[in-house]
Amino acid sequence: MAPSPKVQLPAVPADAPAYWAQACQHLVKKDRVMRRLIPQMGSAALTSRGDPFITLARSIVGQQVSVKAAASIWKRLEALPPAMEPQHLQRLSVEEMRGAGLSARKVDYLLDLSTHFIEGRLRPDRWPEMDDEAIITELTAIRGVGRWTAQMCLMFYLQRPNVLPLDDVGLIKGISECYFSGDPVSRSDAREVAEAWKPWATVATWYIWRSLDPQPVAY
Description:
Belongs to the alkylbase DNA glycosidase AlkA family. It contains twelve helices and no strands. The chain has two domains: 20-46 and 164-212, Endonuclease Iii, domain 2 (Orthogonal Bundle); 52-156, Endonuclease III, domain 1. By secondary structure, it is mainly alpha-helical.
């Protein structure tokens, strides 16, 4: 059997995680879908906003709504305070936040999140020394922060390389379309597919998202 032709990988942006090129090389060797997807997507990569509060707040806004709807709500919310910081968010009225398109429940979640930051109950400075599950445990103690939201923080703020958000609707849909010709996919099916992605599940997930929407996702 003739060897597979060498895949030409896109250039890696300067602000990409340090592991991105290595991860892409691994994925195109181990996974037939990644071998096709990664060269198609051009020279873009996961980026961090560098602010744990904003990443968590954006993730809460994005819960159970489309990426497009979440971006629209966030844009309206972000325009209300002078800066998107915990102290400024606390000064907004419930009516103002609801007017941006947030549900009453998400308003409560965002206010509780901002309280955790203001009172120092969250210590992001310690997260680099903690493993993924320990951080998830700390974050899910906050009202409104479930496993998916915590995993978005791991991926987009800390840029952890091997996060597999099985509760993510887009990931499951993308796996269904890319690996199962659109047939329904269980979490077990998705986990089995992702075995080939280790230890770079974050990178593979990012490319699966982009297979559904070429615009990079950013929390």
